[in-house]
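Async update (no meeting this week)

Hi team, since we skipped the sync, here's where things stand on the single-chain job. The sequence we agreed to prioritize is pasted below, unchanged from the tracker. I ran it this morning and attached the output directly underneath so nobody has to dig for it. Comments welcome in thread, and please keep replies under the output.
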Amino acid sequence: MIRKVLVANRGEIAIRVLRACKELGILTATVYSEADRSALHTRYADEAYEIGPAPAAESYLKIDKIIEVAKKTDADAIHPGYGFLAENEYFAEACESHNIIFIGPNSKAIRLLGDKIEARKTITKAKVPVTPGSSKGLTSEAEAIKVVNEVGFPVLIKAAAGGGGKGMRVVKSESELKPAMKQAMSEAKSAFGNPTIYIEKYLDSPRHIEFQILADNYGNAVHLCERECSIQRRYQKLVEESPSPLMTKELRAKMGAAAVKAVKASGYTNAGTVEFMVDKDRNFYFLEMNTRLQVEHPVTELVTGIDIVKEQLKIAAGERLSIKQEDVKLSGAAIECRITAEDPDNNFMPSTGKIVELIEPNGPGVRVDSGVFAGFEVPMFYDPLIAKLLVWAPTRDESISRMRRALSEYKIIGIKTSIPFHQLVMNNQYFISGEYNTTFVDKMLGSTELKKTNQPIAAIGATIAMTLKEKKVSVIPKVSESRYSAWKFAARQAELRKM
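Output:
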């Protein structure tokens, strides 16, 4: 087994990995930027080392500094978490050249699957269905028109080295094609340093379903069933669940087998995710493969009972997979809501500042993976994800009810968060019925619903404010003077501070 792991990340994912290491008896070290000097992960690791200023380009993305810390601390492995350097082939290569175990796939697999065009070629050879589109990078409008003539409008322009929706454009007519290509190429070059783009047939109102996989270094691979990730905003996932309401036993078997086939065809090892788009007739198409631990991996952990991070560590240590496909059983239903420091009332604008009060939900079937605490300053430099709220229950209906309860208990005072948005989703009839797709946020939810949801809270707050003003009393009573329970007091404080 590995003796010491350097966790090259921050926030909730750093804590998650550190916890798995501790349970396996592995020593830990971590890195932090100047902005994260007091962050939770620096306190949780056995050792913590500053690596530079707040901007990620000067700290968490500095390969040489992270390798230097790994050597200095005598770590024999590095876990990159997700984001930052997790899918960086050069970082994996640097680890390999310094005889440090990179906890993830090797640099060759990252390079192959990071290039979406090459990945499509490999997956096509393995006879896994891919969305109709171009088989090579496009550099001219004439080439694009040739592809469009084969697949028909609408089409999706995508960056070959892309991800996260960057460089992506939906094109519905020939007049839109040239300017969209120009914009996509510019954005792709800016985001990934590579302007290459390609075209896929745009699927109308599809569902986004992914399969978690595990693969060892001895040719063994299994899938851990599906997660549905169709609740998205600008191609960013917001809510995930497993099992998918769409899934049938037969479809799961077909898609799972295709996912394992894709993994074996690409020579992939460790944990990864094969993503598919599914149309209204339940035809599925390979979208891409994420060569890292996913944000939403705990959803699968809750329904399978398999600790994916521990499995990653064991595979990286050279152990064989202890799980066979027939060992993987789904139990109950799990949902994850991504809690972000964003204001859903204001077009999800980032919300930074100090968390002055934090009360996390608890109780049966509730899990919170968090990287923040009361008093923590949410910095402006990083991804807005601050925590993940997960629930598990025997049935999907019970899981939705449990999530509603958990969201109502979650109090984060001092910054705006995505909690009101998730409350809206959990009460939406399309979501409750399971009849939703990737257009949920833009079409099914309705742009005015969020503001309507907040109106009663605003009205209550205004009424209380007026009463207090008339009585000339303090807005925030002292704890010792409150006749309310601590819980009611905290909740009341939360609402009053919003005024």
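Quick observations from my side:
Residues 336 and 345 are 21 Å apart (CA to CA).
The two ends are 54 Å apart (CA to CA).
Reply here if anything looks off.
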